[in-house]
Write a structure and sequence with these properties.
alpha+beta, Serine Threonine Protein Phosphatase 5, Tetratricopeptide repeat, 3 domains, 5-stranded antiparallel β-sheet, 5-stranded mixed β-sheet, 21 helices, Ankyrin_rpt
Length: about 525
């Protein structure tokens, strides 16, 4: 059985934590736990906001009259906020009118009584503390604003109370919105909710309070080919996702799965037990299977379903082409370079409503590497560790990278969501827009658009007209079901295909999916 300390660290969000801690304490009833252990356990449970477990552990003390105050710094006011009735708290607040300082006293976690009332989830107590003069902007030890404490236990009611209270007190619109306030590490409430797996708060922030999932988290990279793979300086909110339910919510709100860490994305696709283990998985591929699948190749049909053991292992473990080259070092390996790899930059990842993931094309390594290649395949993951491969003739779907892949549900699917839509007839389709591509394929002034039919995986070239963005890449795309259109913002546009240099896109371009015509909305000078 894990120790009390281990249990508290690992299971603070677990509904069974109280009974688990109780069982451990009962089993240790012979010699009672060491004072150091009890003290550490109290501090951990308190820091996690598990005040029920705090009370349980405190009952084990026999040599200290009030361990809550001596160990945690909980004065009588704190204890009334956490364990007392509203009436008892009101009496204490009336008695404290001449001593307002006690309202801002902090415990060992640098929390005020008001912040603890939020953790308790008692709106009446929180309201009475505010009426008594508590600071509504009090922050925790790491600068956590009040809404973070509502999110800690996924308390949507308290979250909405705080937001409503803030909006009522700031009707002039001054100051930073409460849903944009950050801690000292610049974590927003949405980031905190995602990290805490607070599903209800995530949905409330996205749907009711319209929090932007992207914000300014995606600065433009350098506009030269040599730096296409540079990392953004700020971590996107989706990178903290560990559950499918939250992932769905973020993607529906416009977050891009491409911004997730490759390992985290692999776990959600079902490869948690195999990712990164190429030293174990590559040896399971026979020399013949490697020889059959090692080369980058195009399909002969639209689509061509590919069954390849080598490709499957490469997807499961995420190995680079060079790792495969070392494993199968031979004349065959040398002759087939670039070696096929799924360790790619600039590939898109689209989440389907049924839980499948669709990853499209991308590039491996830089242009000077012997294994550099830009791909034109499609890999469909079932989310359980299995995948399907589809290849295409180069003239049907050219090699593509740093594009966007936007799912447009079928009219039937959109109507089932009770939305007023102006959808395109037909089945669901993923619209693939933009590309970097090979220099010889780049056409300045033209924007490549392809449609991937989700029901058949057939690729269709979409002919468009109007004021198109040009040869754009690294942009963002958002689908609007009300107007049946996809809007393109950000990114950069190649103007000289030979040099591969681009200019920053400052305009918004919209593709009407019914007329297939582009329009431009110029940015304000």
């Amino acid at each position: 059985m894990p120790s009390l300390i281990e249990t508290l660290h690992q299971g603070y969000l677990n509904d069974d934590l109280y009974s688990q801690a109780q069982e451990i304490l009962v089993q240790q009833a012979g010699p009672k736990p060491e004072p150091e252990t009890l003290q550490e356990a109290l501090q951990i449970a308190s820091s996690k906001g598990r005040f029920d477990v705090v009370e349980l552990i405190a009952s084990c003390y026999t040599d200290i009259d009030d361990p809550l105050e001596s160990v945690l710094g909980w004065t009588k006011l704190f204890q009334l906020v956490i364990y007392g009735t509203t009436e008892e708290l009101e009496v204490a607040l009336q008695a404290a009118k001449e001593n307002q300082d006690i309202l801002e006293q902090t415990d060992t976690c640098h929390r005020t009584p008001f912040l603890c009332s939020i953790l308790v989830g008692d709106r009446d107590k929180a309201q009475r503390l505010l009426q008594a003069g508590s600071n509504p902007l009090a922050c925790g030890q790491e600068g956590e604003p009040p809404v973070f404490y509502a999110i800690c236990h996924d308390n949507v009611d308290m979250l909405n109370f705080l937001i409503s209270k803030w909006n009522g007190d700031n009707q002039d619109g001054g100051g930073t919105s409460i849903v944009e306030q950050t801690d000292r590490l610049d974590n927003t409430p949405l980031m905190h909710a995602v990290r805490k797996r607070a599903v209800q708060c995530v949905n409330a922030l996205l749907r009711e309070h319209k929090v932007n999932v992207s914000g300014d988290n995606n600065p433009l990279p350098s506009l030269v080919d040599d730096n296409l793979n540079s990392n953004c300086s700020t971590t996107p909110v989706i990178s903290n996702t560990t559950t499918r339910e939250i992932l769905f919510a973020l993607v529906q709100a416009g977050a891009r799965m491409e911004e997730m860490d490759s390992e985290d994305r692999a776990k959600l696709r079902g490869y948690a037990n195999t990712w990164g283990k190429w030293d174990e998985l590559l040896p399971t591929v026979s020399a013949d299977d490697f020889a059959d699948g090692c080369c980058v190749q195009f399909g002969d049909a639209n689509p061509e379903r590919v069954e390849d053991p080598f490709w499957k292992v490469m997807v499961q473990c995420g190995a680079s082409a060079y790792s495969a080259f070392v494993q199968f070092e031979s004349s065959a390996a040398e002759s087939c370079r670039p070696i096929w790899s799924f360790d790619r930059f600039g590939k898109s990842c689209t989440l389907l409503p049924d839980g499948r993931f669709v990853e499209i094309a991308g590039e491996h390594e830089d242009y000077y590497d012997p294994d550099f290649a830009i791909y034109n395949d499609v890999v469909v993951h079932d989310g359980k560790g299995n995948c399907e491969f589809y290849s295409y003739p180069e003239e049907v779907f050219p090699c593509t990278d740093f594009h966007t892949a936007t799912l447009v549900p079928s009219l039937e699917e959109q109507l089932s969501q009770e939305e007023e839509v102006a959808a395109v007839a037909g089945g669901s389709m993923i619209y693939i827009i933009g590309c970097v591509g090979y220099p010889q394929d780049r056409r300045p002034g033209f924007t490549p658009v392809f449609g991937l039919h989700v029901d058949t995986w057939k690729m269709e070239r979409i002919e468009t007209s109007g004021d198109m963005p040009g040869w754009i890449a690294r942009h963002k795309a958002v689908y609007d079901p009300l107007s049946s259109s996809i809007s393109i913002t950000g990114g950069w546009i190649i103007v000289n295909p030979e040099e591969g240099r681009g200019v920053e896109n400052k305009d918004e371009f919209t593709l009407n999916l019914q007329t297939r015509a582009w329009t431009r909305k110029s940015a304000t000078p």
